[in-house]
Amino acid sequence: MIRPFKKITPIFSESVYVDEQASVIGDVELANDVSIWPGAVLRGDVNKIRVGLRSNIQDNTVCHVEHKSTWNPQGCPLRIGDDVTVGHSVILHGCTIEDRCLIGMGSIVLDGAHIQSEVLLGAGSLVPQGKILESGYLYLGSPVKQIRKLTDEELAHFIYSSTHYVKLKNEYLEKII
Ligand SMILES: CC(C)(COP(=O)(O)OP(=O)(O)OC[C@H]1O[C@@H](n2cnc3c(N)ncnc32)[C@H](O)[C@@H]1OP(=O)(O)O)[C@@H](O)C(=O)NCCC(=O)NCCS
Hints:
This protein is mostly beta strands and 177 residues long.
């Protein structure tokens, strides 16, 4: 379901796949080759959501934003960079995720958190409000702790994962199911 809110309609670039069981509402922009999987909700009603090239937002993930207020004049938009994999049943709220990250299944990322490029967030992690996760590391836990530097294989996996999802969504777009 794709629908406008307050006359702002989601904008999709080329070859975007939004599953018919996903919901995309309001001020949401999806760059080329983004895929949004069944049950995912991207609700850009009180602030904006931007998703970069080739990123995938998997089943039942909830993406929302924080509104603008006197104590937080810009509110908290949600920004997801290029080649980001967001696993199943994640909650992303008003945070920033830079390029080439993997957000493990069932994780929760709170307002103002900033995940730098090439971070692997283990399944079931919680990233507190405003926390900065440093580029090139594995983080785990609730609340997250920095565990170790990523290996070359793990660093390469970010692009492997986003490329895999681009191929998969192309099959869905071609209805080779
Ligand atoms: C964290 C992860 C990357 C594995 O990293 P690793 O360094 O190979 O870790 P290991 O499997 O060797 O486990 C090391 C320890 O961390 C623990 N651990 C593993 N994953 C964990 C997690 N997500 N949260 C908390 N602890 C975790 C293990 O139980 C183990 O603990 P122990 O030493 O007490 O036995 C992996 O478990 C993970 O969470 N991947 C994300 C997968 C995902 O969600 N992908 C999205 C697909 S859609």
